[in-house]
């Protein structure tokens, strides 16, 4: 991943010109982005721990489709590129609780493994926006697209003086986020053979 110039700088590479925040999206676009996330998280430890193995990738795609359409788009920020090959979702600290109908649908998609989601993680400081997810299609991984998405949403967060928090269960991700200004402030060990989860925070610059 590279340290490309932030959006808004006239010297930024042409490929970063397409990074944008979606303010509206068609069902087809939502389905495409959900499929990207399903591919990106197909072998992610946390996903494997919280989603049943039966038709897992289809379950993950359906879960992300519901979150993107009913949570991220109306309440938060969805950032993507012109090819819809990557997506990042940022949620506000005052995001509304999910309606019960949506909770029931998500629970059914997670299956029995979804009970592990009841494990509580440390709460981010008040006023913190949450990086709910970021994923890049496997064919585009290693091209700098993930960095470009993060730089765009963080540039916007800085402009509004917003701290941003996240959780990751992949130790290999820590250096990537540290390069972007995040620091680890808590580490949690999940029960029943679960993995470690690192809570990270980035204050506005």
UniProtKB/TrEMBL annotation:
UniProt domain N-acetyltransferase: residue ranges: 17-203
InterPro entries found in the cross-reference section: Acyl_CoA_acyltransferase (IPR016181), GNAT_dom (IPR000182), Trichothecene_AcTrans (IPR052523)
One Pfam family here: Acetyltransf_7
Name by which UniProt lists this protein: GNAT family N-acetyltransferase
Organism from which the protein derives: Arthrobacter gallicola
